[in-house]
Write a structure and sequence with these properties.
The strands form two sheets. The chain has a nine-stranded mixed beta sheet, sandwiched between helices. Strands 7-8 form a two-stranded antiparallel sheet. With about 575 residues, it is an alpha/beta fold. The chain has a domain of about 45 residues. Pfam families: COesterase (PF00135).
C-alpha cells in the first residue's frame, strides 16, 4: 500500500473537494487533512460519501504541498518553511468564508486528520495564527504534534544535502535556483531525505513559535501554569477527540525496506544485530538517534526487559526469539512514535482546557489475506481505522478490502461517534467518558462486538519510555544492570478506577524514572571527576620523577628563554 500511495504531483495542487448532502442546509462541517508523512498522499484517496450521508454533515477534503515543496526550509527568510501548514490554513479560511454556499455552517467546523494529517491539525490548534473562530473542534487519529521529531532543530543542515544535490546554494538566489528545477528533479533529490519525517515543521516565529519539547517540559514541571498556557496558545480553546491504534508499529515494517533493502524480508524476525540496525534509523525524544557505540546485546536486553511481562492470552505468541524480538521492536516504535505522544497531548489538553477531551483506542484486526507476517498481526495497524471512518470507501490504487457485517456495524458506530463529536463536542454520552488527567484518564476501546470503556491508557509505558529512549541514545551502555519491570497492562472495564500511581520502580534499587536519570547523571559527573583526578596524579608523578633525576638542559633552556623575553 505504501508503494502505491506515492504519485508524482504538481505544486499547483491547492484544490479541495466538497461533499454535501444538502446544499441549502446549515450543517456541521468537517475538514479532513490527509496523512502520508508530509511526503506522500492526496485528498482524492479518501471518499467521505458514506460519512456525509449517514452523519448528515458537510465534509471537505483538502490538498496541500508536501515533501520539499511543502516543508523544505533554511530556517531564515531565504526559505522560511511551513508552506504546507500555511496551505492548510488557507484552505480552512476558504471553507470558513464560502461553505455556507454549499449547505455548511461556518460557525461549526471540525478539523480531523490521520497520522501526519493529525499532527497538522494539532499544529493548527497550537498556531497563534489561528483561533477558535476559524474552527471549533479537532479530531486526531494516530498523530500528535508532541512527537519530538516533528520540529526541525537545524533545518539548514538537514536540507543542505537536498539543496546541494539540485545544484543550488543557500544564498540570495536559492529560490530562483529551486524554481528552475522540474518536479521530477526535486522528487529524485528529496525522496530519501524526506522519507522518515525529515521534512517537518520549523520554528519560523510566524506560524509556530515554540519547540514542542519546551511545551512538554513546561507541562511536566509546572503543570497548568501561566507559562504552559502561553506556550500552547489556543490549544485549549477547542474540543478534542483523539486516539491511537493498538499495533501502530506495524507501519514501520512497511517503511524500513524503502531505506534499507536488508529489511525486505523479516518474516522470521530480527537478530540482535538487525534490531540495533533498525533502531538506528529512528530519532528518539530530544536525545538524537541510537548511539552508534551501543552493542547489539545491550539494545536487545533493554527491549526484552521492557516488554518482558507483557502478556495477553488472546494473542498468538511468537515461537522463536527472533520473532519475539521483532514483536517487541514494532510495539516499542508504535508506542514511541504514535501512542505516547497522543496520551501526552490528551493529558495536556484536559489539564489546561475547560473544553471536552475524549480518547479512543482502535483494536480491530482486519481480515487480510495471509502472508509471511500474519503471525505478527494481532490488532489494528497504523491507518486501519480510516477504512471504518470512511465506510470502507477509498481510492488508494491497488488497495481493496472486503468487510463483513460485524465490521460494517463497527464502521457505522464510528461514523456516528465522529460526526456526533463534530456536531456537539461529545462522540457519545453512553460509550465515552471525558478524559481527565489525573482524575479519570479514560478511553473507549473500539472493536467489533461491545465497546469497552477503560482507564489509564499505557500509564506504565509512558513513565518508562523516557528512560528507555535516554538509554538508547546515550553514548555508553551505562544502565545495563537496570531492569525495566513493566506491570501487566490494565484490562479494567471501569472508567472510575483509581488512576495509576506515578511511583514506577526501575531496577533492583526501586528507582523512579527521575531518580534513575539523575543517578545516571551523577555517575557521569563522578566518572569525569575521577578521570581528571587521575590525570592530575599522573602529571604530579611524572614531574616528581623528573625532579629527582634533574631537569634536562633543553627544558631548562626553554624556561630561561621565556623568562628573559618577558622581562626584557
Amino acid at each position: 500500500m505504501i508503494a502505491n500511495f506515492y504519485k508524482l504531483g504538481d505544486e499547483d495542487c491547492l484544490f479541495l473537494n466538497i461533499y454535501t448532502p444538502n446544499p441549502t442546509g446549515n450543517l456541521t462541517v468537517m475538514i479532513f487533512i490527509h496523512g502520508g508523512g508530509y511526503y506522500q498522499g492526496a485528498s482524492h484517496f479518501y471518499d467521505p460519501s458514506v460519512m456525509v450521508a449517514q452523519g448528515e454533515v458537510v465534509v471537505v477534503t483538502i490538498n496541500y504541498r508536501i515533501g520539499a515543496l511543502g516543508f523544505m526550509s533554511t530556517g531564515d527568510d531565504k526559505l522560511p518553511g511551513n508552506y504546507g501548514l500555511w496551505d492548510q490554513k488557507l484552505a480552512i479560511e476558504w471553507v470558513k468564508d464560502n461553505i455556507k454556499d454549499y449547505g455548511g455552517n461556518p460557525n461549526s467546523i471540525t478539523l480531523f486528520g490521520q497520522s501526519s494529517g493529525a499532527m497538522s491539525v494539532m499544529f493548527q490548534m497550537l498556531s497563534p495564527a489561528n483561533n477558535n473562530s476559524l474552527f471549533q473542534r479537532a479530531l486526531l487519529q494516530s498523530g500528535s504534534a508532541l512527537l519530538s521529531t516533528n520540529i526541525i532543530q537545524d533545518p539548514k543542515q538537514l536540507h543542505q544535502q537536498v539543496i546541494s544535490s539540485l545544484g543550488c546554494k543557500i544564498d540570495s538566489e536559492l529560490k530562483k535556483c529551486l524554481q528552475s528545477k522540474s518536479m521530477e528533479e526535486i522528487r529524485a533529490a528529496s525522496w530519501y531525505n524526506f522519507i522518515f519525517m525529515n521534512n517537518l515543521v520549523v520554528i519560523d516565529n510566524d506560524f509556530f513559535y515554540h519547540d514542542v519539547l519546551a511545551i512538554l517540559d513546561a507541562f511536566t514541571q509546572q503543570g497548568d501554569s501561566a507559562y504552559t498556557r502561553e506556550l500552547v496558545g489556543n490549544f485549549g480553546s477547542y474540543d478534542l477527540f483523539s486516539g491511537w491504534n493498538d499495533q501502530e508499529g506495524m507501519f514501520i515494517l512497511g517503511v524500513l525496506p524503502l531505506i534499507d533493502s536488508s529489511f525486505n524480508n523479516v518474516s522470521e524476525g530480527f537478530s540482535e544485530e538487525m534490531l540495533l540496525k533498525a533502531l538506528q534509523h529512528f530519532p528518539f525524544t530530544n536525545q538524537g538517534f541510537v548511539s552508534r557505540s551501543k552493542s547489539a546485546s545491550f539494545v536487545n536486553d533493554l527491549l526484552m526487559q521492557y516488554y518482558a511481562n507483557k502478556q495477553d492470552s488472546t494473542k498468538n505468541h511468537p515461537t522463536t526469539a527472533s520473532k519475539d524480538r521483532l514483536r517487541r521492536f514494532t510495539e516499542f516504535l508504535g508506542d514511541e512514535t504514535f501512542v505516547i505522544p497522543t496520551i501526552q497531548h490528551l493529558k495536556l489538553h484536559s489539564a489546561i482546557s475547560d473544553k471536552n477531551t475524549f480518547a479512543y483506542e482502535f483494536k480491530q484486526l482486519l481480515n487480510r489475506p495471509a502472508d509471511s507476517l500474519a503471525w505478527l498481526r494481532t490488532g489494528a495497524n497504523h491507518a486501519d481505522e480510516g477504512l471504518f471512518v470512511f465506510g470502507f470507501r477509498n481510492n488508494v490504487p491497488g488497495f481493496s478490502y472486503t468487510h463483513n457485517e460485524e465490521e460494517k456495524e463497527l464502521s457505522d458506530r464510528m461514523i456516528l461517534h465522529w460526526t456526533n463529536f463534530a456536531k456537539t463536542g461529545n462522540p457519545s454520552p453512553t460509550d465515552y467518558m471525558k478524559y481527565s488527567h489525573p482524575e479519570n484518564p479514560s478511553y473507549t476501546q473500539l472493536k467489533t462486538g461491545s465497546l469497552e470503556k477503560r482507564s489509564c491508557p499505557y500509564c506504565e509505558k509512558e513513565k518508562v519510555l523516557s528512560a528507555i529512549t535516554f538509554a538508547l541514545a546515550h553514548h555508553k551502555d551505562l544502565i545495563t544492570n537496570l531492569t525495566f519491570a513493566t506491570p501487566d497492562p490494565i484490562e479494567s472495564t471501569s472508567t472510575t478506577e483509581t488512576p495509576c500511581s506515578d511511583s514506577l520502580s526501575i531496577g533492583k534499587l526501586k528507582l523512579t524514572e527521575t531518580q534513575a536519570i539523575r543517578t545516571l547523571q551523577v555517575l557521569l559527573a563522578v566518572s569525569v571527576i575521577v578521570t581528571v583526578l587521575c590525570l592530575v596524579l599522573i602529571i604530579i608523578l611524572i614531574h616528581s620523577r623528573r625532579t629527582a633525576k634533574g631537569p634536562s638542559k633543553r627544558v631548562v633552556g626553554e624556561f630561561q628563554l621565556e623568562e628573559k623575553e618577558r622581562l626584557s
